[in-house]
Each structure stands twice: as C-alpha cells, then as structure tokens.
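User: Please predict the structure of the protein below. I'd like the answer in structure-token form so I can feed it into my own downstream comparison script.

Assistant: Understood. Taking the following sequence of 378 residues as input:
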Amino acid sequence: MTPFVFNTTPSIRMGAGEIENLGNISSAICTGCALIVTDAGMVRTGIVARAEAILQRAGVVVKTYADVVADPPEAVVMGAVNMAEGCGLVIGIGGGSSLDVAKLAALLAGNLGTLAGAYGVNKATGPRLPLIVIPTTAGTGSEVTPIAIVTTGASEKMGVISPLIIPDIALLDPELTYDLPAHVTAATGIDAMVHAIEAYASVNPNNNPVSRALAVEALRLIGGALERAVTAPRDSAARADMLLGSLLAGQAFANSPVAAVHALAYPIGGHFKVPHGLSNALVLPHVLRFNTQTHPDDYAALAPHAFAGGPATTEALIDGLVALSKACGLPQTLRSVGIGAADLPRLTADAMNQTRLLVNNPRPVCYADALAIYEAAL
C-alpha cells in the first residue's frame, strides 16, 4: 500500500439538539471569554442568540463578531482576529465562510502572526486558540478540513492549508439546517458531492483508501437525500443524511484534495459573486466530461453509489448529476448567472492560476482546455 496521511477533527458530535451541549463543552476548555464568529444572516435566524444564551448559562462570557460575508476578504478576517484578542476560545457558527474566518481568527489571535504569512500549504504556525465549529449548511465540510479560503484584492482567492486549523470539535445539529432556503440547500449539497467525486478521483499522492471509502458513503447519503431536503426542508432524516454526507466528503477531500472543478469554480465566484456551491455545479458536468475521456473508471464506479440502482457508467454519473441539479432548481448555464462569452478569457486566466488544485486533476488542463470547458458551460 502506498503510504498516506489522514488528518481530521479530533472530536465530532452529531445529533438533533446537540447545540444544547455547547455550554458544557465550552466551559470545560475556555479560559477567558469566547468569541462567536458568524454572519448577519445567521443572527437573524435566532441561532446565534440561542448559542449566546446557552454559553452564558454555562458561565462563559461571550463576544460576537457577525461581519462575515460570502467569499470573505482579508479585512473581514482581520476584524475577527482583532475581536478575538483576550479570548480563550473561538466558535464558528454558519456556512463555510463563517467557519473559515473562525479558523483564521483562532490561528492568528493565538500566535500574533500575519495572514499573508499563512497563505499556502503548511505555512501557518501555531499555537492557536481552541476552536469549535457548528456548520449550519451541509456543503463545505469546513468543520473537518485544514483549509480556509480568503478573497484577496478584487477577486482572487488564496488559501491557508494547514493541519493547524483543523477544528478541535465539530458540533453537528441537523435541526439548525431546517430553515435553509431551498437554493442554498441545493447548491451546498452539490458542492459536497463535488468534494466526494474529486477526492475519489484525485491524482494527489495522498489519495488514500480512507478518503475513497468516505467519498463513496458521502455520495450514497447525499445522492439519496438532497432532493428530499430541498422539497421537504424539515425532513429530519434527509437533513441528517445531508449533514453527515457533507462531513464525510469534507474528510475525504481534506486528505485527497480537490481538482479542476474547484479551480474553474473559484473565478466564477470571485468575479461574479456566484455562491461557491453553485459555481461548482455550473462547471461540474463539463469538467467530468473532459476527465472521462482519459479516466472513465473512477467516475463509472461512483455512479451506482450516487444514484442507487443506476448503471456503473460515466454517463450515468454525469446525467444523474445534471438531472439532480435541475430537479433542485439550480441554474444550468453561465449565462443564467450573468456571464457572457467575453468574460471567459478572464475566467480562464484566473483558473490557470489555481495550480494547487489543477495538479490534482486526473487529466492535465491547459488554457485551451479550461476555455473549452467554460464555453461548454456557457
């Protein structure tokens, strides 16, 4: 067996109503106050106020930073870092952006380092503050990944990739996802499926049997639950399967990294503010068609897991993903999100800068290939 490394969050707690245990968990590890990192939308749901009350009943002093936005820029990250001064614990509540900002706040407040110095693979240095994350979407898997993505400048994305930012505790409560809008449920769900598919087929040297097994189970769970979660948002079984599937997919790609789908999706989000999950969904079938010309076997093997009872063919996987995306009401073309043919060279140039992702793709991608994929998605 080829040697590999597998890292993940040390403690995962999942169950309906699990948020009620946040106070006891936090008081056992918190010295000083706790900082909640979240966004304004989460505040409006009442979930943040509930978490604050639970912490306060346990004797934990709480500060809340609620300025996170999608695709967070450096200024938002540093705002959280500054507010974390004097805190003994960081708690991220929300989607991937809030969890990523919480990771970086815990890192930089713990060692007084710089964000610029942490960009890249294994550039971060410790120590960091204790970190609990509570995902309220089933998509990014950020609760178990060593990755935090930041928007730099106008549109480019940079990553901090280090085991140091893997959270200490992931607290998963499916009830917190009941009120997600249908389009968010759909886009984040497809995002998690992309994580599983790309992790399974990645040519990264650390692709490993643990990641592949987790990717298969993630696809089984999400493939069977996503449309139900969209159409019946309080289906407790569907919401639990989505949250667990997202976590498993996160564990998979945290150790067997993603590839060209993400590389081509990032510029779409950066330039046109398209949510990350939807950006992935828009290019997914076209990247898979490109890859299957040279590497069909992995995708064929995944098809009957993602879509129970279907044939083990690449066409079944791709057609099933397209049909699922349509059934969930997601846009299907780049034009539908405001992107025209004139925009494609700029997107392509930016995608080619995502070298840390493109090297993991089963089939090499050159500029002409990426442009052709965008043209097919237009």
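That's the full token string. Strands lie at 11-14, 33-39, 62-68, 87-94, 120-121, 131-135, 147-152, 156-161, 169-172.
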